[in-house]
Amino acid sequence: MVLTLRRIPAFAYLFPMRLEIAAAAMSSCLGPLITACAAFRAGLGHARSSREFPYFPEGDNAPVPLVTCAIPDVTFGFSAAGRLIAILHEALMDLQGRVSLQELGAGTPLFLVLPDPLERDFPMRPELREDATRRRDVLGTFVLKQAFDNLGMAWRGGWRFFMGGHVAFARALQAARDVIRSREAEACLVVAVDSLLSPPTLHSLSLRRRLKTEDQPVGFIPGEAGVALLLRPAKGRLDSRVPSPVLLDDVCVLESPEPERADGRGLAACVERVLPPGASASEEPLLVSDHNGEQRRAHEWGGLLLHLRMRRPEWRLERSSWLPALSFGETGVASGALGVCVVLRGFERGYARARSGVVLTSEDRQAPRAAILLSASEKEGRA
Predict the structure, then answer these.
(1) 3-state secondary structure of 144
(2) From 3.40.190.10, 1.10.10.10, 3.30.1490.20, 3.40.47.10, which CATH number describes the 246-376 domain?
(3) How far apart are CA 215 and CA 378, in angstroms?
């Protein structure tokens, strides 16, 4: 059942409702949520030579190893939509350990964020190449239904699909916030899944020289991941006997008048937009970036630090920044969701040296930039 959103009443914005992350789950090269975030904190990675794609450097007839961040065993032998289904299934299995999916009723819609299959060179019918909306819905319906079939259950809530690049996850969070604030939904399950490791995708990326290889040091290590977040209204009064939740405070997506400009100004504006108006300048948030090693993103990240240093000279930026791609590789539409997960566990375990975190994402060659503000609702210790 596809979910249709109604117009949001004005009072929903006059009296904004805070949301909490009631449950989270992950499927990644480093394992499920808890294992993966612990490995990320320790600076570990799982970059290995691909078993499925032979890479031939330009002008060389002998293949060389291509380093990737594949999910061990889970996706081996799968390609295109089949790979997304396998990743989504693993993420939902991880979520089942924290919340019963069968107990989530019709009042909990599912928002699924997917890559554009055309961008990933998935095989498809000719008519879908010209119709982005239908392409999104066909892929989303197939992936979602097959994943739940594999779980032996059907999803009772409605669903909605989002397609695009890194910023698509932030747009899905905005939509989830709106349906909960307007009382159209009791909760919302936001899921992002992507893989850049299908052989056709790797072949296209290698031709465009976007991969980090022996003959192309400026590029990214391709990866894959799936993330699920269950969002609910934050409780007004916290029970001191249970761990306090991590809150989703704000989401900002900004369009730039100069889409090709990547000097950090757009990201800096997103950071300023999500920070509370009365926040002290000394309360530096943890910054989590989707910087993946490409030259354009490196330039934008450096520009962001420069602009923030000029506006907030008391911030110690290099010591409060995390780059998930160092451990997980480039994960496409799931990159922002991975950023939320590492901040979430940092707050829950008490090793994030900040009271708030800002997850930053930007598109490859387009205007949108996004920031997601998270906060710990009260002082956390080690769990």
Answers:
(1) helix
(2) 3.40.47.10
(3) 49
Q: What is the DSSP letter of 31?
A: B
pLDDT of 257 strictly over 80: no
Strands 110-115 and 188-195: parallel
Provide the angle, in degrees to the nearest 10, between the axes of the packed helices 335-349 and 168-181.
60
Q: In 3D, which of 215, 198, 193 has the Cα closest to residue 336?
A: 193
Does this model's pTM top 0.70?
A: yes
What are the phi and psi torsion angles at 302 (to 5°)? -65, -40
Q: Does the pLDDT value for residue 169 go beyond 90?
A: yes
Label residue 8 by pLDDT band (50, 70, 90): very low
Burial 365-375 (b: 16+ CB within 10 A, else e): eebbbbbbbbb
Q: Which of 337, 6, 5 is nearest to 159 (CA)?
A: 5
* Residues 34-84 pLDDT 10s: 999 999 999 999 999 988 888 777 767 777 789 999 999 999 999 999 999
Report yes or no: 259 and 374 within 8 Å, Cβ to Cβ.
Answer: no
**Which residue, 51, 84, 83, is CA-closest to 68?**
51
Domain with CATH 3.40.47.10 in the chain: 11-233, 246-376
| CATH code given to domain 11-233 | 3.40.47.10
